[in-house]
Amino acid sequence: MLSTKEVEALLGEMNDPVLNVPFSETEGVVEVKIKEEKEHVSVKLAIGRLGGQEQLDLQMKVVDLLKENGFATVGIRFEELEDDLINEHRGNEASPIESQFSDGKTEFISVASGKGGVGKSTVSVNLAVSLAKAGKKVGIIDADIYGFSVPDMMGIVDKPAVEGEKIIPVERYGVQVISMAFFVEENTPVIWRGPMLGKMLTSFFNEVQWGELDYLILDLPPGTGDVALDVHQMLPHSKEIIVTTPHPTAAFVAARAGSMALHTDHEIIGVVENMSYFESEVSGQKEYVFGTGGGEKLALDLDVPLLGQVPLGQPKWDHDDFAPSIYKDDKISDIYTEIANSIIEKSEDEQSKE
Ligand SMILES: Nc1ncnc2c1ncn2[C@@H]1O[C@H](COP(=O)(O)OP(=O)(O)OP(=O)(O)O)[C@@H](O)[C@H]1O
Description:
This protein is of the alpha/beta class.
């Protein structure tokens, strides 16, 4: 029968399924105990993230391996690796993106918020359309799985076509769109968690024929709960924009979304304050209906620029469809155009430095 040291060495060659690094490097083999008379081994492993499909798959592999090596029974426990060890090895983390984006030409921009209803989807859509208007090739993934509103906001009624094994995004206002809404029956509650969610997001990246893209905008689930965290962890590293309303308490909640982004290794590139004020068309006077200062405070706290302040504006209709503000309201269009330009400038700046 193998000794404790031999079992440690054997397990040390296996990869942490989340970080894609051998356990010998992550110090992931925490404990090995053998009861020779009962041919029993019990092991404790520390992995990059608990609770996912990866953990279940690993559990089976470990049990199989140890049984092949002569143990009759195997006990296995897991704990999460310490944060500094996770951060040290994060660069190797398995990402759901495959060859479609491996040339590094596509920039991922996630749009997040501390709570629902602050206009995260509105900002995602208008930003995507503004970038497309500026001549960029743009896609949008509506990853707000429980509140998919992007197709409605863009007036999309078509479903994506399927060619062979690939899903073709729906094009609207020059933007390639994929939404969870395309794949669930109307009014069916979505109750996917963990592994199912991961599969859906992975297929949004891998099974969708995106073509060449300069930007892929990701409309994230709102808030800082489990689902938002899961989505953050599953996404490739992205630049992130945090949307808030002007009320200082809203900004406080949004700051939590900011720390989630940083904790999961996304780079925050700016804040958009939405519903900043109402401007009377008659007198031109601005009323700060929801307070002031939230966006500025959040930007200061996160040490990023305030990319724009978007006023309240009536939803606009284009024929029978809702149209993004960027297409209708001159003042709001200008603000989104400015936000898009500063994002483009930042990307070009970074590219010229590479
Ligand atoms: N600047 C604005 N002026 C007027 N209405 C707005 C503005 N921004 C958003 N809205 C409206 O507020 C509602 C919520 O917006 P939206 O769906 O974009 O928020 P959200 O943060 O994505 O919400 P959730 O994440 O809960 O889906 C929508 O009806 C939208 O039309």
